[in-house]
Amino acid sequence: MNIENDSIHEECGVFGIWSPEKISAAKYIYYGLVALQHRGQESAGIVVCDTNGPIGNICNHKGMGLVSEVFHKDVLDKLHGNIGIGHVRYSTAGASTVENAQPICFSYAKGTLALAHNGNIKNGDELRKRLTDEGVFFNGTTDSEAVAYTIAEKRMKCESIEDAVCQVAGDLQGGYALLIMSPQKLVGVRDPYGLKPLCIGKLGQAYVLASESAALTSVGATLVRDVEPGEIIVITKEGIVSKHIPVPVKRAHCIFEYIYFARLDSKIDGISVYDARIRGGKALAKRYPVEADVVTGVPESGLTAAVGYAEESGIPFKLAFSKNSYIGRTFIKPSQEEREASVHMKLSVIESVVKDKRVVLIDDSIVRGTTIANLIKTMRQCGAKEIHVRISSPPFLYPCYYGTDVPDNSLLIANEYGTEEIRQRIGADSLGYMNLEDLEEMTGDLPICKACFDNNYPV
Questions:
Q1: Cβ(229)–Cβ(251) below 8 Å
Q2: Has 59 been annotated as catalytic?
Q3: Distance in angstroms (rounded) separating the CA atoms of residues 280 and 192
Q4: Which CATH number fits the domain that encloses residue 290?
Q5: DSSP per residue over 287-308, as a string?
Q6: Domain containing 72 — which CATH number?
Q7: Structural domain includes residue 166
Q8: In tens digits, what is the pLDDT along the chain, a chain of 459 residues?
Q9: 178 with 117: CB under 8 angstroms?
């Protein structure tokens, strides 16, 4: 459900590159961030360094808006370096301001450190208190800043930045993918549960780290492998080294990467996102068959599950919505009325597809129910005889604490109403959610986190 006033958002995406050759790291990062734009549209930032220049020769730029709005050619031309990290952000914690845009970059006694973070740290308050108690100057407000300053503080007592990262990561609770850059090294870290994705790519002699493999492809890099849960990747002029966080690994990969967050052309932990969504749609067709004339999906992420439903059911798949991609980001509109008007402008129903038809409508989730209710109303105005809604995720019943903006229980429609009541409220003829046990149809034997559905939190 890619309509911002009633949808689930990922917190952010990260991209980093280290090349032994003289390249414009910033330009590669720019294209990598464009490929990750779906993971965050509020702010973007790039930090680079020339490893052959003066120590601490770090350049950075960040701002509010899309990657193409924050970075222009003249800005990129000023960002010199062969190593760098970038970030796109959607805020699930902390205000949506340029001060909270990432990467975080600052100097300290041992040099300069930059950090980009995807996810959410549950014990951020504890980190901030520890910094204060130890007399470390810290004026940040976000968990990401607390992590960055804690790494810098540990680095004062460690032989290397990776040793400091290893110590700090062992104390972190939550889901995270971190990119840390010093003037000579690029470090990537993935939480011990694998909640947040991170992968390694190769581009000539350069190594690339990114939230999704689609970002590697966008810059011409090839996927080497995923960073393992609990793994620390260190990239220097000597090559790539793997270390591990000194804590037990307990895999719990976020199921919503496969349902909604990730791009269709990404592969995460060996599983094609496209194939996973097709399997999800097929599982829905097996669980909730219905006599109908056409299957369609809500753009964008509902479309692939709809194809799977159509393949399994034998009901023809058709596109029933026309999407206007030039309306702009509806979450920045000043009022609820304007946001709703923008939603109507962004998606319009193709009348000839639904008129006098029994329609199966596939979407990835129902959060508050307002968007799908409006779409159903419009489809009926266009002559749809029946509308049978199928949702490729179970009902949201519990909040997410790992970097996804699943809101508190009071804002979740499924927490207040049962399936039949929700069906009535959204105006559907029938409603079927993905069953918990059917989620394995999507990801096979990959251990998954589904806490927002079953209240079984891994951390």
A1: yes
A2: no
A3: 26
A4: 3.40.50.2020
A5: HS----SEEEE-TTHHHHHHHH
A6: 3.60.20.10
A7: yes
A8: 333 445 555 569 999 999 999 999 999 999 999 999 999 999 999 999 999 877 668 999 999 999 999 999 999 999 999 999 999 998 545 556 787 899 999 999 888 999 999 999 989 889 988 888 887 767 777 889 999 999 999 999 999 999 999 999 999 999 999 999 999 999 999 999 999 999 999 999 999 999 999 999 999 999 999 999 999 999 999 999 999 999 999 999 999 999 999 999 999 999 999 999 999 999 999 999 999 999 999 998 899 999 999 999 999 999 999 988 765 544 444 455 554 555 566 789 999 999 999 999 999 999 888 889 999 999 999 999 999 999 999 998 888 888 776 656 777 899 899 999 999 999 999 999 999 999 989 999 999 999 999 999 997
A9: yes
The residue whose two tokens read 């004026």 is: 139
Alpha-carbon distance of 246 to 228, in angstroms, equals 14
241: CB partners within 8 A, 6+ apart: 162, 233, 234, 235
Contact indicator for 310, 317 with CB cutoff of 8 Å: yes
Q: Is 40 helix (H, G, I), strand (E, B) or coil?
A: coil
Tokens matching residue 129: 């208190």
Q: Distance between alpha carbon 238 and the CA centroid of its chain, in Å?
A: 31
Q: Is residue 449 part of a domain?
A: yes
Q: Which of 12, 199, 400, 449 is catalytic?
A: 12
Please tell me whether residues 312 and 442 are part of one structural domain: yes
Distance CA 361, CA 324 (A): 19
First-to-last alpha carbon distance for the chain, in angstroms, is 27
What is the extent of the structural domain holding 106? Answer: 4-251
Is residue 277 in a domain?
Answer: yes
Angle at CA of residue 330, ends 329 and 334, nearest 5°: 120
* Same domain as 183, residue 307: no
Query: How many domains is the chain built from?
Result: 2
Asked whether residue 372 falls in the same domain as residue 416, the answer is yes
* The total number of residues written for the chain in this structure: 459
> Per DSSP, what are the bridge partners of residue 159?
none
- What residue ranges in 255-406 does DSSP mark as E strands? 267-268, 271-272, 294-297, 321-323, 347-349, 358-363, 386-391
Same domain for 290 and 241:
no
Residues 173, 277: one domain? Answer: no
